[in-house]
Every structure is written in structure tokens, then in C-alpha cells.
């Protein structure tokens, strides 16, 4: 078991990486001074695999457990789904001392966290991520929210969990496409923060499936990725400055997700496309070497992630969609662009023409 502490001005909590950890969920929560009532939130697929194990662990630790399964998929990350959570919380008389536990991927974690932040003006919240993407990114740092038809995550709140419990063994049941999606966020950390992690992944023959990662490499990926997220968030909890670098690849990525109705590419695939675009922008602007962009492109391809835009997306629509991105400041779109491996800068000095030029080269 490996524990990483995230310390913030108002709160501190542990990210616990523990194989077989779901069986220890109740024990770990018992030491956090939480109320007895727990609402376990999941989707039907994850609940079938791990819901029973989580409930047994919680009940053995003395918690009273109810559950709510939400639809699976980014297109369901809406206020309508959150309302179902509110209704279940009301039916089970959740109190301010009660806890919502998110057992699932980033969509479940985002919605559960937002519901916890807003139910009774804020109740306890625990993250048990079951996808690689959620383990290394979405479950850590307190970003919660839902989508609006005009853009991703436009409705939300910063709300920190009391605990993040990562059980690497659950990745054995993760679909191959979802595993690859998580690798996009891992590559992101290599580019923005941890050049050594990037080099370790380059040395691996294949990264497109869970089975090709050694136990040591998987542990290294989880530990270094989580530590990178903790390092950044501990310095800037609410994205006043440094935390914006975590959006590398997300600016164009979010536009692609939104314009395809969250049905054509998943989040990690969109981020991969966005990283390719951001890297090429950096090259064209003289910030990054082409050799580094080639390394990034090769690693993304090694994971089996897309590097081209899906067919049917107009580049004008992408540029227009960027204006509704929550990272826009004073009317200017902010991009995270690499300057060397492990180092990036945030800039709003990227013209629409520069974006058009890069996008034109990225169609399949």
C-alpha cells in the first residue's frame, strides 16, 4: 500500500494506492470521523463487478449503505442524472454528516462530487476510481461538475474528497479502449511535469493494453501520475495559475468531445488529439522542437490513441467552440503549450489562423 498526502489550506486527504483496496474501503473510511449513512454511487457495469465487495466492506465497518446506479457515458453527465442522485439522497435521509462514495470512472466521480458539494450545502465525499483515467486524474484535486449542451464541465464546483482509494486490480476488468483513454492523461503528465515518466513509457514495447504493462511499470505510472497531480493542486487548488497546465491537450480536446456529442471519441481520445494539436502549435510558434513533437506523437501512437480529427468536424466549428471553453479569459483562449519535455507554458497569444493551420493537417 502506498499513500500520497494532498495538503490544502482548508483540508488534507490521502490518495491510497492499494491492490485489493476495495475490501479495505470501510476500514479506511472508519478513521475519518464520518457519519454512519453512506450512499454508494456507481453504474450498473461497475456495480456488478465491485459494488457487492464495497458494500460488504462498508457494512462490516458499521456503515448503513444505500446505492444508486447512474447511466454510463459522458452524454449522461447532466443535471438530470444529478437530480436522480438528489432524489436517492432524500429517500435515504442523508444528513450533513453522511457520505457519498463514487465507485466508477470520471463521469461517476464528477457527478457524485457535484451532488455531494450541493446536497445540504455540502456533505462528505469519497472517491473510489475504477478507470485508469480517473485514478491518475479525475478523482484527484476536487474538480466536480456536469456538462451543458454548449460545453463540457461548464456547471461545477471545486469540492475535495475525504479520501481517494485506488485499487489497481480493478483495471483487469477495464475495457481496452478505456485503458488507452487513461494513458492519454499519463502521457500528459510526462509532457507537462515528469520527463522521466515519459522516458519510462517510451522504453516499454507496447502500451495499448493493460496486459503489456509490468506490475512495476503500472505502479510507477500510478504513483508518479498521482504525485504530479498532487504537486500541482497543492500549489494551486482552484486554478488561479499553475493548475491550468493540467489542461494540456484539453482545450481542443473538449471542443472535439462537445462537437461530437460525447459519442464519437471518449475523453482520453480527445485529449490525445488535443495534445497533438497543442504540440504542433508549439512547434509552429517556435516554442518546442519538432523532435520533441515527434516523440510525443510516437508515444501517443504506441498507446493506440488517435492523432487525427474525426471526420465530419469542421475546423470553423472547433474554433467557435473554443470561445465557450471555461478556460477563456478576457475573451482570449488560453493554450497550454510545451517548451521542453516536462515543461509547459500557458499563453493566450495563439491566433485563430495558427489554430486553423494546425487543424487543417489533422484530418483523417
Automatic annotation (TrEMBL):
GO terms for cellular component: cytoplasm. Its EC number is 4.2.3.4. Its main location: cytoplasm. NAD(+) binds at residues 72-77, 106-110, 130-131, 143, 152. It is found in: Cytoplasm. Residues 182-328 form the 3-dehydroquinate synthase C-terminal domain. It holds the Pfam family DHQS_C. GO terms for biological process: amino acid biosynthetic process; aromatic amino acid family biosynthetic process; chorismate biosynthetic process. It catalyses: 7-phospho-2-dehydro-3-deoxy-D-arabino-heptonate = 3-dehydroquinate + phosphate. Pathway: Metabolic intermediate biosynthesis; chorismate biosynthesis; chorismate from D-erythrose 4-phosphate and phosphoenolpyruvate: step 2/7. Keywords: Amino-acid biosynthesis, Aromatic amino acid biosynthesis, Cobalt, Cytoplasm, Lyase, Metal-binding, NAD, Nucleotide-binding, Zinc. Zn(2+) binds at residues 185, 250, 267. Residues 68-180 form the 3-dehydroquinate synthase N-terminal domain. Its cofactor is Co(2+); Zn(2+); NAD(+). InterPro entries: Dehydroquinate_synthase (IPR050071), DHQ_synth_AroB (IPR016037), DHQ_synth_fam (IPR030963), DHQS/DOIS_N (IPR030960), DHQS_C (IPR056179). Binds 1 divalent metal cation per subunit. Can use either Co(2+) or Zn(2+). GO terms for molecular function: 3-dehydroquinate synthase activity; metal ion binding; nucleotide binding. Belongs to the sugar phosphate cyclases superfamily. Dehydroquinate synthase family. Catalyzes the conversion of 3-deoxy-D-arabino-heptulosonate 7-phosphate (DAHP) to dehydroquinate (DHQ). This is 3-dehydroquinate synthase. The lineage of its organism: Bacteria, Bacillati, Cyanobacteriota, Cyanophyceae, Oscillatoriophycideae. The gene is aroB.
